[in-house]
TrEMBL record:
Pfam families: Band_7. Coiled coil: none annotated. It is found in: Membrane. InterPro entries: Band-7_stomatin-like (IPR043202), Band_7 (IPR001107), Band_7/SPFH_dom_sf (IPR036013). This is Band 7 domain-containing protein. Belongs to the band 7/mec-2 family. It is a single-pass membrane protein. Residues 148-307 form the Band domain.
Amino acid sequence: MILWKTVDIADNERALLFRRNRLVKVLEPGRHRMTRMAGKVRVETHDISNVVFESTKAKFLLHTHAQLLEPHVDHFELSDTQVGLFYRDGHLTDTLAPGAFLAVWKGVEKVRVDIVDISEAFAIDTKLVGMLAQNMKVGKSRSAVAAMHYVEVPDEHTGLLSVNGKLEKLLQPGNYGFWKYNRSVVVKLLDLRLQAIEVSGQEILTKDRVSLRINLSGSYRVTDPETVALKLNDYANFIYRELQLRLREAVGTKTLDALLEDKDSLNAALSDDIRSKLTEYGIEMISIGVKDIILPGDMKQILNQVVEAQKESEANLIKRREETQAMRSLHNTAKMMENNPTLLRLKELEALERVTSRIDRISVYGGLDAVLNDLVRLGPVKAAQ
């Protein structure tokens, strides 16, 4: 029967010596010999390089054997309204949840736990937010993910902070952190930039029962984020639905001809109506307009025929007007030549010039006088004697 037990403890180890399942001593680095005659011996070895005293019975052992463990182990315990920030050698490495218990080995590293009361305040200091967010991004601390709600509010945006379902305040651009313990924290981002909206493919009947497909476009901007958050669940869908309804009302009261002749009146009617409605909900409608009015195939063909007939009528009218003007001019010219032989003779010579420019050869009988006087005669021919 072996009466002695030998145990070697490394420099990075501490051991708890149990005799008859009762803690009797903490063994430091070195070789230790223990007799078995006083009862069954058990040695529980711990690696202290991890600093944390990892044992399911750590809290119990510290309470029942404080004199044995206090020279070697330090501990921290939080209330239900406290959060702990665990530092090792000045570096934030972990976050302790409310009600947590932490035991650490002394003499390994410089350890401290900063305690934060979250019973009232839930916003995290800006400098601390940066450190916790960095730990979250690099995966250094999983507990930080569970402890903190982190949000970044970009430029031209605002954040709506709600705690336990109640809107607390608006967040300006920047980064923020809030303790999630004991409360529900939600941050909703609202875009304050100019945004576009399209209402496409709306099948609508006009007053004279013609089916049209209309595409509408507009732009808007959120001016009162708090009102939008309190009164509207989904403001984009709300604007789309209001534009859709206003468009149907405006088109249904006009005939097809009225719509095609004056689309601007439709835009004005929509704009005035929707602007007053959206202002109540903290939204400014910047612009709105009808992009396209698409006719059915048969109606398009009929309108094309109507337009074609109108254009032909206009062309005929212009043609008749020009012919009348030309006849009037000829009549005036004839009157002038009737009373002025010299002008008549000049017109004859002009006609002679045109004739001669189109022929290659002229046979002349009667000399030059016959060419000048008899070849072209605009006046009435006298009967032969």
